[in-house]
Amino acid sequence: MPKQSKITKSSPGVAAPIKDAPDKFYCTRCPRDYTKQKGNFPASQSPIYRENGGYLPVCRHCVDEMYQHYKTVLGDEKSAIRRICMKFDIYWNEKIYAMLNKSSTTNSRVLSYISKSNLYQFVGKTFDDTLDEENELMQRSSDVALDEIIADVNEEITISSEIVEFWGAGFAPSFYIDLERRLKYWCGDTDRYSMDVSECAIIRQICMLEVTITRDTAAGKSTDKSVNALNTLLGSANLKPVQKKKEENLDAAAESTPFGVWIRKIENTRPIAEPDPQLKDVDGIAKYVSVWFLGHLCKMMKIENTYSRLYEEEMARLRVERPEYEGEDEEAVFEDIFARADENGTDFDGELDGE
């Protein structure tokens, strides 16, 4: 008897790995080697190091040495940390740097910064995001500065009385220009005076806060109160992202609601009105169905209700009763029937006369 294989499944298994996991991990800057990456190499969110397990190829000791070098060359630790971030594609932000003064750790300043840059609120961000944010901030600052330069150089710049009346008096011409831009962004080509009064008031305040936040950010001022006020106004206007998401969920629920449920809701809130006399059941189809379908069915099932009574009444109206001869015996009835037949030319045997 041939030997049976121990393999129970005919489908092939997972392919064998091309190479085993490395036993050691080497730093690309120094000759140090380690048995594991965690704790010896800084973690990174950059896609450049994704296939390296999400760790930098340079060990923590070398990163710290490079930081000390740039700190000496550039003159301050902030510039040195930023240079390290630029070299290894790490997200740089002033908020993360400010966290270093609020926490105590045994790590060096640069290693502590790299660790905080991997927090959840900064997930997926690299030095490219730093450059994009700085370019956007510079663009905003240049737009604001350009408006101010135009307003200073050209003293004859004027704002129409209609715009001043809408936004209020006392602002610089460049401020009115920014307000008009934000109103164009929110309302498009809609006439400002065609909006509802409350809606117009909220949009006007939103535009003012947006311009104020942009200018305060460019000037390095705090914007927390303005941002909170803006969020409140967006909530009043039902423009918050969470409110939009809730509306989308409601739309999805509405699409999945059965048609019969919608009919019931409409009938409970806005029922169909009584039809005009001209549009009522002029052909009697409702009565026809009620009597000959529902009534007949109830009669068959021996159910006593309105439908069965309607059926009985209608049947009584259409039923043909057999004539009765009162005061006469059966012989007289028999003679009367055949006498009528004889008058019509019919013999007793049912044949016509003459045949």
Word description of this protein:
With 355 residues, this protein is mainly α. It folds into three domains: 25-125, no CATH class; 130-239, no CATH class; 277-318, no CATH class. 55% of the residues lie in helices and 1% in strands. It is built from 14 helices and two strands; from the N terminus they run E-E-H-H-H-H-H-H-H-H-H-H-H-H-H-H. It has helices spanning 60-74, 77-88, 94-99, 109-117, 127-153, 161-167, 173-187, 197-218, 224-236, 241-256, 259-269, 285-300, 306-318, 330-343, and strands at 25-26, 33-34. It has a two-stranded antiparallel ribbon. The longest helix is centred in the middle third of the chain and has 27 residues, at 127-153. The radius of gyration is 46 Å and the shape is elongated. The chain starts with 24 loop residues before the first strand and ends in a 12-residue tail after the last helix. Residues 350-355 have low confidence and may be disordered.
